[in-house]
Design brief:
Shape: globular
Strand order of the largest sheet: 5-4-2-1-6-3-7-8-9
Distance between the termini: 47 Å
Strand content: 5-15%
Largest sheet: 9 strands, mixed
Number of strands: 19
Structural class: alpha+beta
Helix content: 25-40%
Length: about 800
């Protein structure tokens, strides 16, 4: 079980390595600058010199633009790109030829990459005898994929499919499954090489080798997570039963070079997950550095099991470093080990939910990009002659709202359930009904209540497993359902917002390859001084807190040996205030060069370092404490439940350990007691939250020094929702968009109660509701049902 002590030790190692890296980086920069000044070495002219000092040969692209020729049959033929070799920085030259799909097996490598923003400057390449404009990201990939001594056959969607021909795209996109399955290898290009890339790939290869050796030499399964990587919420519990300790774990703990890989857009695109999963062999590539996906998995799993990287921070914040990787692993497990008793429609819904956070340039691809995966699981899913077939037709000429609405309608009809309504964020897409999902929205929303907080399918059914009676108007704009109106919303509490660790923010402050940006008001000379002096001081601070041979404080040698929390907090405060003093001195020095304006702007900058992120974390606590007060203000009247249990059972949305109430109650009580010091602190010192949130975090870490408790994963369903009370006194979890006066309805065939609102004389859908005491049909009366038309 993780604790604040574990997180503190990891963070301590992160900053120790960071300070050394920044110091080395600064020394290198200054040495290079000094050498140029003393030796008067001119900087290389990029227009004259190519790689390794070879004079660049400039080749102009043909003036005539390349035009794709029609494929013999777009449903059975594809184009392959032959990338010509090059030893110099010259124009990329390619040949494009068609080949039968059946004849192409293992004759090419497929490329998986991120297209980039449409507004980016294009780069010309030569295709056959014409020129073709491609994006900078694809140009970078081709440069790194290019052999020096032989051609290379590739399949690249942006070139091998005529992107100006919607009819051809409609024929070729359904072939993606076969194209990536037939490839000899899929190269997943993450981006250009950065300063830390070689060290990162070297670390990953060593971790993979260590993992594979351990698997050969002995049984180490006891160290592995108790939770299989088959659910997204459960990935937060990827904590070893007994963490491994190896030479590499001691060497790499706190390493931040993996941030560069985790921050790549490739992990967050709609198409890339299909391209990876459908490939028999995949290679991850950054610049010219590469590692097989199999070895990447072994390396990251080893890092997780040895706690080089932890999936959760402070007990409840998902670590963005590992989330993209784990989400891919979840989908791989779903596709390779499907539950065959489920229908294609249910699998499609699960795939769409798991890929909802992924982005696509064309919003229609949020649907189309997962159809290949669906056909990988159910080959006949799109076969019109199959009994379970889905009537989803690809069409890039179709309106986005129509694509989303018709897909939602098909899933509702084929599943006979309303579970898809749990994935309906507020949308402003013209023509999209409120009951249809806008898949282009990637913002964080509440977890669909079809599953509990541990991502287990609910066994309860609010309408006693009745049959769905959903109908749709001729134009598809309205859905007619049959249900029973229960009560309306009377009062609302605040929204429990999910605290998010932003990978980009992490990189800005932690990645030595991206040193912090200083104020433009600082003169270059002073900026160089600060960039040299600051890492040196930070390294000195690291030295006296961690050096096993030179520190004058022996009790700080090993943070794993029951170091007193008061000592740790004292060291942390000294470290933090020395850093602030240094930064303040830096800004004060700039007054001599920039005037009093710099001081006025510098003080808030220094004061607010990290405050925004920590303020957001404390806001989660204050919201939870406000919910406690909200629930205690009036005894809940939920049917058949002890009023003392209603709050915590609502908070966890009916998620119980091994389906046992008593065990879960004890877990909650322990967690509640752990929060008491912070709860008291925020009551007596509320202004600390806004002006000095670090103090609140220190109190929380003090209280959870030995354990965070087990209850945090149980409240996953509460995030992005708000607590509420109905007119008849029920305590409930409501969607974040809920308003006073909204009506709670039980709909025949629906697993969850729904929240409806009257707008302009018509009902609209707001979201799902959790009401403890009525979730298994206790309040449902078939005889009281009536039709509701939702637009």
């Amino acid at each position: 079980m993780s604790s604040a002590r574990d997180d503190f030790w990891t963070i301590r190692q992160v900053y120790a390595k960071l300070n050394k890296s920044q110091l080395d980086h600064s020394k290198s920069q200054i040495s290079d600058a000094y050498r140029r000044l003393t030796e008067r070495v001119p900087e290389a002219d990029s227009h004259d010199i190519g790689d390794e000092g070879v004079e660049e040969i400039i080749v102009t692209a043909p003036s005539e633009k390349y035009q794709h020729t029609k494929l013999t049959d777009p449903k059975s033929y594809i184009r392959l790109l032959k990338l010509q070799p090059s030893q110099k920085q010259e124009l990329i030259v390619c040949e494009l030829n068609e080949i039968g799909l059946e004849d192409s097996v293992e004759k090419y490598d497929a490329l998986s990459y991120v297209w980039g923003s449409p507004g980016n400057d294009s780069v010309k390449i030569q295709v056959n005898k014409g020129s073709l404009d491609i994006g900078p990201s694809l140009h970078c990939a081709l440069k790194n994929l290019q052999y020096t001594d032989r051609p290379r056959s590739l399949w690249i969607d942006a070139i091998c499919i005529d992107q100006t021909n919607d009819w051809e795209k409609n024929c070729q996109v359904p072939l993606m499954r076969e194209i990536y399955s037939n490839a000899a290898c899929t190269v997943c290009f993450l981006g250009p090489e950065e300063m830390t890339t070689p060290a990162l790939y070297d670390m990953l290869e060593k971790l993979a080798k260590e993992r594979n050796l351990m698997a050969i030499e002995g049984d180490w399964s006891e160290h592995r997570s108790t939770n299989a990587l088959d659910t997204l919420p459960a990935m937060g519990n990827h904590l070893p039963i007994r963490p491994l300790s190896t030479d590499l774990s001691k060497r790499y703990v706190g390493d931040t070079t993996i941030l560069a890989m985790a921050d790549c857009s490739w992990w967050h695109r709609a198409w890339t997950v299909q391209e990876l999963i459908l490939s028999p062999s995949a290679v991850m590539m950054t610049g010219r550095n590469s590692i097989t996906f199999e070895n990447l998995c072994a390396a990251v799993d080893q890092g997780l099991d040895t706690q080089i990287w932890g999936p959760v921070f402070l007990g409840f914040i998902l670590n963005p470093i590992v989330v993209p990787y784990l989400s891919i692993r979840v989908l791989i497990n779903h596709c390779r080990h499907p539950q065959q008793q489920r229908s294609p429609a249910i699998h499609l819904l699960n795939l769409l939910i798991h890929c909802r956070h992924r982005k696509s340039t064309n919003p229609r691809d949020k649907i189309y990009a997962v159809l290949g995966l669906l056909r990988h699981i159910f080959p006949d899913a799109m076969n019109l002659e199959s009994s379970n077939q889905l009537d989803i037709e690809l069409g890039y000429e179709k309106d986005v709202a129509y694509v989303y609405r018709s897909t939602c309608q098909e899933i509702i009809l084929k599943t006979g359930q309303l579970d898809i309504l749990g994935v309906c964020p507020k949308s402003y897409l013209t023509g999209l009904p409120t009951w249809a999902t806008d898949w282009s929205i990637t913002d964080r929303i509440g977890t669909p209540l079809m599953q509990d907080s541990l991502d287990r399918v609910r066994t309860t059914h609010a309408t006693k497993n009745t049959e769905l009676n959903a109908r749709f108007s001729d134009n598809g704009a309205h859905m007619i359902i049959t249900g029973q109106e229960l009560t309306s919303v009377a009062t609302l509490a605040k929204i429990l917002v999910t605290p998010i660790q932003d990978t980009a923010v992490f990189r800005r402050f932690l990645d030595p390859g991206h040193p912090p940006k200083y104020s433009s008001k600082l003169k270059p000379e002073l900026e160089a001084l600060v960039e040299t002096f600051e890492p040196a001081l930070l390294r000195a601070l690291s030295w006296w807190t961690s050096s096993p041979t030179h520190t004058p404080f022996p009790f700080l040698v090993d943070f794993q040996r029951n170091v007193g929390i008061n000592t740790i907090i004292a060291c942390y405060i000294i470290y933090y205030w020395l850093l602030l003093l240094l930064l303040l001195c830096k800004r004060v020095l700039s007054i001599q060069l920039t005037g009093l304006t710099a001081l006025r702007e510098a003080l808030p900058e220094v004061y607010s370092i990290g405050n925004t992120f920590l303020f957001d974390i404390l806001s989660s606590f204050t919201t939870l404490f406000a919910w406690e007060s909200f629930a205690a203000a009036e005894a809940p009247k939920n049917p058949g439940i002890d009023s003392d249990d209603v709050y915590w059972r609502t908070l966890c949305a009916g998620t119980y350990k091994k389906e046992t109430l008593s065990q879960t109650r004890e877990i909650y009580k322990h967690w509640f007691s752990l929060m008491q010091p912070l709860r008291t602190f925020l009551i007596y010192f509320p202004w600390f939250k806004e002006h000095f949130p670090r103090a609140g975090i220190a109190v929380y870490m003090y209280a959870t020094w030995h354990t965070y408790g087990e209850f945090w994963p149980y409240i996953t369903c509460a995030y992005e929702r708000r607590m509420g009370r109905t007119e008849n006194g029920w305590l409930c979890l409501l969607p974040r968009e809920a308003r006073v006066g909204d009506v709670i309805v039980l709909v025949k065939g629906g697993r969850m109660p729904l929240l409806l609102r009257m707008e302009e004389g018509r009902r609209v859908f707001v979201g799902e509701v959790y009401v403890e005491g009525i979730m298994n049909g206790e309040a449902f009366d078939d005889g009281s049902c009536e039709d509701f038309e939702i637009r």
